[in-house]
């Protein structure tokens, strides 16, 4: 008899917990059985379930100004009620027992002892107490039921990306991820690491993984729609010892108390801590002081993404590895979490720490004691997409490893000539300090004698991972990570850079253009000028807002009505917006004029929830840009003055933004500024396949 496929997803339109998708019939039954008016249906894939559920989720019809678009409820709702309305899976671990997989709950006694031992100072030298998994089959296996449609219309949180087919080597990495392997993938600048990472994130989210998306810095995190690693891990600055960090997460008062008992000769048993057992007075004590949500997310996550690993210190990597094992009660490397780590160690290094005012040399993540244990699989992307000329690719590669031959130095020096363009768009100057960037841009803006138009952002707080509304000062700090500015002054003739993919992927983030006039949306429509929409679903020339992720993460969807309401709202905005003329970078070729209306920019938690949102025109002044902000960008026309470079890897990051030697100007080329980090060179020598 043919086998009938099992339905894995149950969408509930009306049940005790509101509209929601469940992964088992038992859960679905639990919220619908005996519930008057219950409505539910089983599906073979999550996508089908979402489609069935999506349009019917009610959203209050409250004017935009008084309703936070990404808030799960309206204003005036009590915090308690908001908390109650949320997805119960995301409530405190104490609301519902946290189930550990058998392999995680059964921690051998020897491990409990070795764990406590390892928390004593001498443990610094006891790296071999770790247990390596016998094979990768013990790692979790994905439960995705979705097709691997990477080029289709995206419903996820990542910015709309023009359809890109993964290369065979990128696909190989994705396959390794699908097989549940922990991997570190690297490659020189422009080999498509970010493109691949977005494909991985999409794949994981289409499935049902507990995914955390993080990066070493705020800007890098924003680029992939995640949070910083520090913030996800709940470790603050992470300066304390690993043990201290664990106890901070679990409740420092308990830690102090336990230390006191230790001094009095009372034996310590790790398993004393059981946050699920409220009959245990110690558990109650711990739960009162512990960061419950931090514990919960460490225990629930199955896949952790860390981007721009080059800026993570090796000591921090070890601390996180330790925290993972302890909090998950799982002695596999990194507590059995599947790690997906990406970056290029030849780019920016970790920011050095300071002790008593003096810098403490930082270490690289590959120097971590547990690095090899956690990331045995290193994969390298070799095909460079950003630059097409092999000669340029070779020059950049030589620079990457600080191996400049006299002829390469000569070739770079030849790039000091001035490049002129007939379309009046100048190259972007890359500087190493923010001050240089601001001065250069303001000076150029000042020289324009046209009318001034100031655009102030509309900032809205979201919710932190504890479901508290983000406070204004915290919101400010979070939004500071965005490339979109709080206020931007524009004039006719200003050179600008697009900071969002617009108009169905025909204009990409990083495209440089010039402001040619200012119009209202209706004037632009009458003149047939395209309106810059980030949406991937609008086929007409109308602004629309891409799906609001908070809705999705609270089990709600952006209803059609809401999208049209936002469209209407934008179209009826009385203000004047900049019309920008773009020549380069238009994928469909040819110049294009676009009315740049405000777009949404978001700062997310690692699980994709919106913490803060900024509505701003998707432009920044682009006569000059900082090297730090240019990381990850592809720029058509670049001018770099290497005279102001101070950090190893900075020159490489700056020059590798360019797509072609023809459009790259290099001032003050000095081979002494092009040094690769000695430690990185030593490490790559032991990984010759990475060169
Ligand atoms: N498979 C692919 N096919 C075509 N183009 C691609 C592919 N992968 C990446 N690209 C293009 O190559 C360019 C560089 O990609 P990406 O920014 O992902 O590289 P990266 O390795 O992250 O670079 P960096 O280290 O400098 O941040 C982008 O313009 C991207 O669209």
Characteristics:
691 residues, alpha/beta, six-stranded parallel beta sheet, six-stranded mixed beta sheet, 31% helix, globular, DNA binding, helicase, ATP-binding, nucleotide-binding, DNA recombination
Descriptive report:
- There is one protein chain.
- The chain is α/β, with parallel strands linked by helices.
- It contains 25 helices and 26 strands.
- Strands 6-5-7-8-4-11 form a six-stranded parallel β-sheet. Strands 18-20-19-17-16-23 form a six-stranded mixed β-sheet. Strands 24-12-25-26 form a four-stranded parallel β-sheet.
- A hairpin with a 2-residue loop joins strand 9 and strand 10.
- The N terminus is likely disordered.
- It binds adenosine-5'-triphosphate (ATP).
- Adenosine-5'-triphosphate (ATP) binds next to helix 7.
- It holds the Pfam family Cauli_VI.
- Keywords: ATP-binding, DNA damage, DNA recombination, DNA repair, DNA-binding, Helicase, Hydrolase, Isomerase, Mitochondrion, Nucleotide-binding, Nucleus.
- Monomer.
